[in-house]
């Protein structure tokens, strides 16, 4: 028996208006203001790119203070804007310079490098580069959990490992491997209270991205009694993390994979999480729109991303396509004039032969893997859009 999975590929675009024609559209005050705003944004982006390239060059300096200042400036730039083009163009260089900085003796430089790696993962989104980021950093970060003794650095290692795996860990085994590293840390190094609570939140983030039926029966047995015991901790953050983890396990189902001790649910302060048996909706204002999140997995992901991006969360929600996909958010598009480029229809068509054997696994790989052909096709379309948009802005600036 065979399965044919298909969808359509087509590019149907309205064309660009030339900048000369565009100038004729901005004679009145409102249109002129819109045009100048777009012009300033484009010039600002160009200047920002030059500054970022300068900071990247400074990562090669011998003086640690210069490298630390450069890393701090890169973090600030990522929080002020969505630096996709810079990240795409300089990905390899930035990745390996950050890994070098992470391995240096300076705790400050190492922590700053970890922050940049996490921001790079969110900015670059799904695709081949996120795969490279995962493969190059996950083993290093997992090993560091066994040897590092500085609490703040441990928390940043956990955060970076979590978000890098969330974005670039395509396969089930990869996600569970990072979860296992966090799980081992929770059990082997319980004296690091703050880092332990961070490990719980990071573990829950990765669990929130998985379907319960894909979970291994052998890895997480004992999770329910473990988190149940942590409810008695005198550390408020640990109790909050354990409560959240138990609630997520309960929502995911398949309790037998977590040792099936359903009595643990009776000791959760459910009122803090549920209202009348439902997850209370979280609403975040994004410009004139609102992002509404009403499932526990998405709320865990939202809280994690907000904490990681800080003040840059709003601008990333407006422009970052990874976050649009994760939270099913469609931002309002800025329009200038009446006849600028509009993408009317983007579709992807692929015919696949999928044997009936292991059809569920095949479906998972084809449709849900970040590295699937569907995701790759969508990425190609988006890259085309970005190139066209960049060409439009540069053309307008030259005029």
TrEMBL record:
Domain of life: Eukaryota
Ranges for domain Interferon-related developmental regulator N-terminal: 48-267
Pfam families: IFRD
SUPFAM superfamilies linked to this entry: ARM repeat
InterPro entries: ARM-like, ARM-type_fold, IFRD, Interferon-rel_develop_reg_N
Family recorded in the similarity comment: Belongs to the IFRD family.
Protein name, entry field: Interferon-related developmental regulator N-terminal domain-containing protein
Upper lineage: Eukaryota, Viridiplantae, Streptophyta, Embryophyta, Tracheophyta
């Amino acid at each position: 028996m065979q399965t044919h999975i298909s969808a359509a590929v087509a590019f149907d675009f309205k064309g660009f208006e030339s900048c000369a024609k565009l100038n004729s559209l901005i004679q009145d005050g409102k249109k002129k203001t819109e045009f100048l705003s777009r012009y300033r944004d484009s010039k600002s982006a160009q200047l920002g790119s030059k500054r970022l390239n300068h900071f990247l060059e400074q990562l090669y300096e011998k003086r640690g203070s210069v490298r630390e200042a450069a890393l701090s400036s890169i973090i600030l730039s990522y929080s002020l804007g969505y630096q996709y083009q810079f990240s795409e163009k300089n990905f390899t260089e930035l990745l390996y310079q950050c890994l070098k900085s992470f391995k240096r003796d300076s705790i400050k430089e190492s922590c700053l490098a970890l922050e940049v790696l996490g921001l790079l993962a969110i900015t670059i989104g799904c695709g081949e580069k996120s795969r490279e980021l995962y493969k190059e950093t996950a083993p290093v970060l997992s090993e560091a959990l066994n040897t590092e003794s500085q609490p703040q650095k441990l928390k940043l290692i956990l955060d970076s490992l979590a978000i890098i795996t969330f974005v670039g860990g395509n396969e089930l085994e990869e996600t569970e491997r990072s979860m296992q590293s966090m799980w081992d840390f929770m059990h082997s190094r319980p004296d690091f209270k703050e880092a332990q609570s961070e490990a719980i939140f990071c573990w829950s983030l990765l669990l929130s991205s998985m379907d319960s039926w894909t979970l291994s029966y052998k890895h997480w047995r004992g999770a329910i009694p473990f988190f149940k015991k942590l409810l008695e901790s005198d550390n408020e953050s640990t109790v909050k993390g354990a409560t959240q983890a138990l609630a997520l396990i309960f929502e995911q189902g398949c309790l037998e994979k977590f040792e099936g001790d359903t009595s643990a649910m009776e000791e959760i302060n459910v009122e803090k999480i549920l209202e009348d048996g439902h997850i209370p909706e979280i609403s975040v204002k994004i410009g004139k729109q609102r992002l509404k999140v009403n499932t526990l997995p998405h709320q865990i992901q939202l809280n994690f991303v907000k904490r990681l991006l800080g003040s840059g969360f709003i601008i990333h929600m407006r422009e970052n396509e990874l976050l649009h996909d994760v939270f099913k958010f469609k931002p309002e598009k800025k329009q200038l004039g009446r006849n600028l480029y509009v993408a009317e229809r983007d579709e992807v068509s692929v015919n696949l032969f999928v044997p009936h054997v292991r059809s569920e696994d095949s479906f998972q790989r084809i449709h849900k893997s970040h590295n699937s052909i569907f995701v790759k096709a969508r990425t190609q379309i988006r890259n085309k859009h970005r190139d066209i948009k960049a060409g439009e802005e540069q053309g307008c600036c030259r005029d």
